[in-house]
Amino acid sequence: MIKAPRGTRDLLPGEIEKWHYIEAVAREISAIYGYQEIRTPIFEHTELFLRGIGDTTDVVQKEMYTFEDRGGRSITLRPEGTAAVVRAYLEHHLQNQPQPVKLYYLGPMFRYDRPQAGRMRQFHQVGIEAFGSNDPSLDAEVVCYTWDFLSRLGLKGLRVEVNSVGCPECRPVFGRDLREFMNEHRESLCEYCRDRIERNPLRLLDCKEQRCQDLLKDAPGIHQYLCPECRGHFQKVRELLRVAGISFRVNERLVRGLDYYTQTAFEVSLEGMGAQSSVAGGGRYNNLVETCGGSPVPGIGVAIGLERVLIALEKLGVELPIKRPEYIFVATAGEDPSGELEKEAMSLLVKLRRAGYPAEKDFLSRSLKAQMKQAGRLGSRFVVILGTEEMKEGKVTLRDMERGSQINVTQQELFRFLENRKSGEAEL
Fold it and tell me: What is the CATH number of domain 16-170+226-315?
């Protein structure tokens, strides 16, 4: 039997409703904050991610799904959403629209990683991107969006960590001193960090190897190297987060796993969730649009991992208020050698659905008793029973499964009852 590839999973009825609810909340919060939806291709030219994410990052070095198409072009399944949105921003000249341009996306991402809880090879993100402003209040807005989205879902114990990773003016000096410090411990570093020392020393801070993390405890911190502009920007971001009532902790080692971040970087995690506690992360990327071939345009965004959100909801015992359809079940009773009952059942089913009522019927020629059981399994509140005698009289039996009561009505009266029930004016 062929199974789903390792690191992927099927989302089945009974679970997919949770995804629909979370996605609906994301759309609602995005509308409140003024973000419009964008949908980009699932695969892009590999060069986009090499230039945008950075060729010394773990994502590019270890995790991308890259292949050649039949035309010999190098193609990569998107490992994250920001670079693709930047590409679309440039390709469709969104920089000519009134700024800031505020966009959100929902969809799958792909990374070749070791599958575990909350870390899949195909995973899903909600993300927002805002282009055209370097105002610290936009940084604060993105953090607030993340906080509000997660809080709206019922998650408690949110922990926000913020940092400034500087800019091309001040970061090189920090990189030089960090390189010198780590070179003294070169032999103790992992293979990747030995390479990072020369190519991109800031990536040393993102290494997950414990031996490298231990060495970094005594390494220089970036805050003493921040230029006046970056220091002032970070100060304003913190002030605005306090105004918004967002509690946070400054983490000088937080750099995120992508090269495009400048100034603000942040991460949101959940207390008591263990190794996979991080559910969202983002930051400012003021040079990414230029790196991808455009004129300098500041930007900032965040990505929220939906698998991790769902795991957190389950561990915390949060029940999502999912409203399931209240089906009307159309059943037939008695012998039907001429097929007239079946025709009438199909006709009524179509009428109900076209009038906007969720409706189902039997498709296995079961007995009335079995049909009633099926109606119960579907959670049907009402069953409309078509019998030979009722049909001769132009009526149906309407049964309330919850109350156990029933009445005989015409189809016109049936639809009048259903319409009145919408406003709570009718009960059997």
Answer: 3.30.930.10
Q: Is 256 annotated as a binding residue?
A: yes
Alpha carbons 399 and 236: distance in angstroms, whole number:
64
**For the chain, what is the mean pLDDT?**
92
pLDDT tens digit string along 162-205? 999 999 899 888 888 888 888 888 888 888 788 788 777 877 78
Topology, domain 328-419: Rossmann fold (3.40.50)
For residue 428, what pLDDT is reported?
A: 66
Nearest residue to 345 via CA among 355, 356, 359, 324: 359
Lookup: tokens for 168: 């091309």
Residues 6+ away with beta carbon under 8 Å from 210: none
| Boundaries of every domain in the chain | 16-170+226-315, 328-419
Is 81 labelled a binding residue?
yes
Q: Which residues contact 217 (CB under 8 A, 6 or more apart)?
A: none
* Stated pTM of the model: 0.90
| CA dist., res. 121 & res. 110, Å (int) | 5
Residues 6+ apart with CB under 8 A from 167: 227, 229, 230, 262, 263, 286
pLDDT at 272: 77
- Confirm whether residue 179 is marked as ligand binding: no
> Does residue 82 have a known ligand-binding role?
yes
Q: Is 125 annotated as a binding residue?
A: yes
Phi–psi pair at 279, nearest 5 degrees: -115, -15
Decide if 122 contacts 29 (C-beta within 8 A): no
Of 198, 64, 57, 174, residue with least CA distance to 121: 64
Q: Are strands 395-400 and 406-410 parallel, antiparallel or unpaired?
A: antiparallel
In this prediction, residue 56 carries a pLDDT of: 67
Say how far apart CA 11 and CA 306 lie, in whole Å: 13
Residue 257: its pLDDT value, please? 62
276 pLDDT exceeds 80? Answer: no
